[in-house]
Specification:
three-stranded antiparallel sheet; globular; alpha+beta; 405 residues; 11 strands; 17 helices; 13% strand
Length: 405
């Protein structure tokens, strides 16, 4: 299968999924009559993708993966070895969304440098999409923070495809990093606060990320996070025409599991949108689970749950998240999450944006208060709660005063 056929198969697969079942069948049947082999490959992918019952999920996914892997082996990557500006492409890292991401190195031999190079997808080359991609470059160029991947270079290739060159982060998604290194709850909270710091920095420069999720937050060997991919970011202010085009083009882009209610409803996004996504991220870091019931199986069901269902308390998700823990370890983890952390996460996950933390910094500050055994904003001002926190912070002094009495 040629590169063009492989790209076309991907496009046809996406187009078929967007159709109603009867229209989808007619679409595939027409392809099968015109191009039997191509149509059969498309039907194979759709059949595997359509298997949704629990017993066949693994087999369906394996069938899709096997088909994609087989096709990928048949299709040489035309980008490998190409030179864009000062950069030679070495291998593909990922694809999707606005384009493909590659590992690249300096091609001019002036000095050694490895980078991540992102090329805009050819099928998206139209004035609005190009403006959006260039807007991403401008966004990245305006951000200078130790926990945000830095922009190194950018330009347009000889075929007219825009590209950007970013700092290469040799790290793992934040959830994988926490599991591999066995981080306890306080360590996960401290790492999460660094992510909030980066998000707040972007917010103060009038940029909302809108796609915060583990794969966009890599943690390096030193334990420092790097926030990636402002490709669907929305500027809160600015009159630049390219920025306006980028906002229009990216209005519907989202990752269902981490999308906020207002994103699902197609309403304007704000700082509160990222606060919600941070809440989902923290829920997953603490429990390994989604805030919504495990019975939510499809993207459509998940989007409905985001708008209509109340999220679970993190402490109630622990038994599902940690089946390998013994009973005492599970009980200990539930006690750690119950109370402050339950309330902190649920405040970030409020349906109404105005009821969430006002900023990512306020979210991080409440986590800091929890770590320091101080009263948290999410708990309110109940006198008994604040007294208990005072006793926890000053246990020795309280015990001494009791002896004096």
């Amino acid at each position: 299968m040629s590169t063009d056929d492989w790209n076309r198969l991907q496009d046809c697969f996406a187009a078929a999924l967007a159709l109603e079942p009867q229209a989808r069948e007619r679409y595939v049947a027409d392809l099968e009559r015109a191009e039997p082999e191509f149509g059969a490959r498309l039907r194979q992918l759709l059949a595997a993708d359509a298997a949704s019952d629990a017993a066949s999920d693994a087999a369906a996914r394996a069938a899709v993966d096997a088909c994609v892997e087989s096709l990928a082996r048949e299709t040489p990557d035309p980008w490998i070895g190409r030179v864009l500006g000062d950069w030679k492409i070495l291998r593909r890292l990922a694809g999707g969304g606005m384009g493909a991401v590659f590992i690249a190195e300096r091609a001019d031999a002036q000095f050694s440098q490895t980078v991540a190079l992102k090329v805009m997808a050819a099928q998206l080359v139209d004035p609005a999409a190009v403006a959006r991609f260039r807007a991403e470059r401008q966004i990245l160029a305006s951000l200078n923070h130790p926990y945000i991947a830095k922009l190194v270079d950018g330009g347009t290739g000889p075929d007219g495809l825009p590209y950007l060159v970013m700092e290469y982060v040799d790290g793992a998604p934040i959830d994988d990093y926490c599991e591999r290194h066995g981080l306890d709850v306080p360590a996960r909270l401290r790492l999460f606060r660094k992510v909030c710091e980066a998000v707040d920095y972007a917010h103060r420069r009038l940029v909302v990320h809108r796609d915060l999720k583990p794969s966009n937050i890599l943690v390096d060997a030193e334990g420092a996070p790097r926030l990636l991919d402002f490709g669907i970011a929305k500027l809160l202010e600015g009159n630049d025409a390219a920025m306006s085009a980028m906002t229009r083009a990216g209005g519907s882009a989202l990752t269902p599991e981490y999308a906020s209610p207002e994103q699902v409803r197609g309403e304007p996004v704000s700082v509160a949108t990222d606060v919600y996504s941070l809440g989902v991220l923290l829920f997953r870091l603490l429990t390994g689970q989604s805030p919504y019931a495990r019975s939510v199986a499809t993207p459509a069901e998940y989007l409905r749950a985001i708008v209509t269902d109340d999220p679970r308390r993190p402490s109630t998700a622990v038994p599902e998240a940690a089946p390998a823990l013994d009973a005492s370890a599970t009980a200990r983890l539930r006690r750690q999450l119950a109370g402050d952390l339950d309330n902190i996460v649920l405040k970030a996950l409020q349906k109404a944006p105005e009821r969430r933390y006002a900023t990512a910094s306020a979210f991080a500050a409440d986590i800091g208060r929890h770590l320091d055994h101080e009263p948290v904003e999410a708990r309110g001002d109940a006198l008994g709660y604040r007294v208990a926190k005072f006793v926890r912070r000053h246990r020795a002094a309280v015990l001494l005063s009791r002896r004096c009495w």
